[in-house]
Amino acid sequence: MAVTIQDLWDEGAEKLSIEVVAGKKYLDRKISEIAMNRPGLALTGFFRYFANRRLQIFGLAEFTYLKSLSDKEKCKRLEQLFEQQIPGIVVARNRSIPKEMAKLAERFKVPVLRTPMVTGDFMNECTGILEKLTAPRERIQGTTMEVMGIGVLLRGDPGIGKSETALSLIERGYSLVSDDVTEIRRTGRGRILCWASEVTRYHMEIRGLGIIHVPSLFGVASIRRQTELDIVIDLKKPSGDEDRVGMVPETVELMGVEVPCVTLPVRSGRDMANIVEVAALNQKLKELGHDAAKELDDKIIQRLTRKRGHHG
C-alpha cells in the first residue's frame, strides 16, 4: 500500500518536527517503499542499485560531500538525483537547503522537507510511522467506546441500541471513538487499533433525533481519536440460552487477533450502559489476573471437597 508525502505530513508532522521548505504543491507524491535511503552513493553518480522509490534522507555525510563540490558539479549531481523520480527528500539537523535543490524541487515537482532531528533518530521514528500508514486495515460495523481505559466495540443488528447505549456511556463521562462504523488495523504488538473515518469522526446518529456532534454537546473529553480494542460486546435479542456464569470465555477473531467477546441480551427496561460499564471493568480486572467466575468456581469446588472429606 503506497502512501503519499501528504499522508506522512498529516500523521507525523508534529512527532517528526518536519516542515516543507520546497515543492509544497507536490505533497501527493507517492512513497512506494517504507524503508528510507541515504543517497550518498547516488551523489557520486552511481545509480545502478539506487532505491528511487524510497524517501531520500540528507544527513551530515551528504551535505559534507556536496560542500566539497563546485557549484556547477553540485547542481549536476543533484539534478541527476532528481531525475530518478524520487518521492521526496528530507533534510536532517535543520540544515539550510542549497538554492540548487530548491529550484530542482519545483522543476521536478518533488517536495523537500526539513527536520531538526538527528538523521538516525528521524529514520527510526519515520519508519514506525510509515509502517503504521501501510499496515492492512479493515472497516467493520460497530460503535467503539473507551470505558475506564478499556476499548469496547459494541456490535449488534440495526436498531438494537448500540448508539443509545454509547450515548448513555458518554453521559457517564466515557469517550466515543466511532459510531456505527469502525476502522481497524493490527498493530505490531498484535493488538487491534480502532478509530473513526474522517467523514463521521466526532458524530453520532440517534434514531428519532438525527446526527449530533458529540464534543459540542459533551465537551472534548467525550471523544477519543483512537483506542486499542480490549473487548467486543454483542448486543442481541434474548434467546434464552445465554451463558449466565461466564465460565467459558468467548473470543472473536479480528484480523488474526483473538479478542474477548461477551454477548449481552437486550431487554426492555434493562440499563445496558450500566451492564457494558461493568463488562468493561470486569475485563480490566481479568487482564490484571482477577477472574470472578473462576474464583467462585474454585471456592465451590473447595467447599464440596471439604464436605466430602468430612462425610468420608
Question: Would you mind describing this structure in some detail?
Answer:
The longest helix has 20 residues, at 292-311. The protein has helices spanning 5-16, 40-43, 60-67, 71-82, 99-108, 119-134, 162-171, 214-218, 272-287, 292-311, and strands at residues 3-4, 19-22, 30-31, 56-58, 89-91, 112-114, 137-141, 143-147, 150-156, 175-178, 181-186, 192-195, 203-206, 210-213, 226-236, 250-254, 257-265. The protein has two domains: 3-134, Udp-n-acetylmuramoylalanyl-d-glutamate--2,6- Diaminopimelate Ligase, Chain: A, domain 1 (3-Layer(aba) Sandwich); 137-295, Rossmann fold (3-Layer(aba) Sandwich), CATH 3.40.50.300. Strand 11 and strand 12 form a beta hairpin. Helix 4 packs parallel to helix 5. Strands 7, 8, 9, 10, 11, 12, 15, 16 and 17 form a nine-stranded mixed β-sheet that branches. The chain has a four-stranded mixed β-sheet with strand order 2-6-5-4. A two-stranded antiparallel ribbon has the order 1-3. The protein is elongated, with a radius of gyration of 27 Å. With 312 residues, it is an alpha+beta fold.
